[in-house]
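Pilot study result, target chain (148 residues):
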Amino acid sequence: MGELFATFGLDVRLLGIQAVNFGITLVVLWYFLYRPLLRIISERKEKIAKGVRDAEAAALAVTEIEEKRTSMLSATEREAQGLVERATLEGKDERAKIIKTAQERSDAILADAKAEAVEMQRRALAESEKEMTRLAVLAAEKILRKQS
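Predicted structure:
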């Protein structure tokens, strides 16, 4: 076999030394370059995977927060609507009370005015009767004086 290598101009010792050098170079490159490169690539994969998980969690959290915000807004809107309705009813009740009170006062004032008008009419009639009586007495006196 040595003759075959010699025919092609190959030195077996040199070939063995180059194979050992190649093996050493391969081990050194694998230990100092390939392993750190694989470690860096796996760390980056983990960071990317963590980033994706965080992004998915953030998207889920945003969705949950949006749902909560929507439900809170609708609950607040319903509560506000209830408050408006309650305030409207209370306003109507208060208006009815004010109108009733005003009507009662108006009726009381009207009753007082009627009573006063009746009293004034009675006094006017009484004064008229007195005046008529006095005038009748004066007329009778005048007639009696003329006859006497």
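One observation from the pilot: DSSP finds two helices and no strands in the chain. A full batch analysis is planned for the follow-on phase.
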